[in-house]
Amino acid sequence: MNDHSDGLLIIDHLHKSYCHDNTETEVLKNVTFRVGQGEIVGVVGPSGCGKSTLLHLVAGFDQDYRGDIAFCGQKITCPATERGMVFQSPQLFSWLKIKDNIAFGPKRQHMAKEDISAQTRIFLERVGMLDFLDYYPEQLSGGMQQRVALARALIMKPKLLLMDEPFSALDYQSRLEMQRLTLKLWEEYKPSILLVTHDIEEALLLADRIIVLSKGPGEIIRELSVNFDRPRDLSLIKSLSFHQLKSQILDQLSVLM
Ligand SMILES: Nc1ncnc2c1ncn2[C@@H]1O[C@H](COP(=O)(O)OP(=O)(O)OP(=O)(O)O)[C@@H](O)[C@H]1O
């Protein structure tokens, strides 16, 4: 078991509103939860309930909120590599080869050239993309690009990985493959993960805990522990206990949303 007691990320009474045409719209309401060291927390909820907004605040893209967001005991004031992000679309730099996309972050951190080259190969190998070093993003499928995006985030050794619907644009089989890869990489690097997803199965497969937000303004209406043993693999999806928990959650969601 991981030690989740410390709260790597602490979100405390978070409120977020957007102002548009002099009208204020509340998007997140009184959101309080923690993500422990090495813990995977899934966030689910209806469209527009503020899931992406929550990730953007934790990423440090926006500091206009009420309440507290603390990471490693410090208020979040800007984006940082220790909080890596994987988006729904891979967002690779189209003008750079795959190896240079991966090397982009380490170069900005002035890592030694030979280390960058070695690390790039290691991370591309981990995501099964070593044969595509010299390709450009447009030459790869969506699933392959998302593998590269995962490697690009992980090479920075983030303590927290923020994943915003990372596999929702992929077909079912590619999505399963990415979920399998995420489980494998998590076993290896154990980053904490805050995962926004529409897919209850994905949240159940990957997460230790699931936070359910209400319709906007998003408020936490349920927090569920997912106690399946680790290491997990895709066979979990076929198990009776998985189906039982999934149908329990779906029942709760259909009442609450
Ligand atoms: N920059 C912005 N300015 C104004 N309103 C915004 C902005 N970003 C998001 N919103 C509004 O905030 C609400 C929450 O949006 P958000 O994208 O966080 O929801 P979500 O739960 O991630 O939705 P989905 O599941 O459809 O991706 C929406 O009503 C959206 O229109």
Report on the structure:
By secondary structure, the chain is of the alpha/beta class. The protein has a domain at 15-92 and 158-256: Rossmann fold, CATH 3.40.50. Helices cover 35% and strands 25% of the residues. It has helices at 51-59, 98-108, 113-126, 142-154, 172-189, 200-206, 240-256; strands at 9-20, 23-35, 40-44, 66-71, 74-75, 83-86, 160-164, 192-196, 209-213, 220-225. The chain has a six-stranded mixed beta sheet, sandwiched between helices. The protein has a four-stranded antiparallel beta sheet with strand order 2-1-4-5, covered by helices on one side. Strand 4 (66-71) and strand 5 (74-75) form a beta hairpin. The radius of gyration is 18 Å and the shape is globular. The model has no long low-confidence stretch (mean pLDDT 93). It binds adenosine-5'-triphosphate (ATP). InterPro entries: AAA+_ATPase, ABC_transporter-like_ATP-bd, ABC_transporter-like_CS, ABC_transporter_ATP-bind, P-loop_NTPase. Pfam families: ABC_tran (PF00005). Residues 9-240 form the ABC transporter domain. It comes from Desulfosporosinus lacus DSM 15449. This is NitT/TauT family transport system ATP-binding protein.
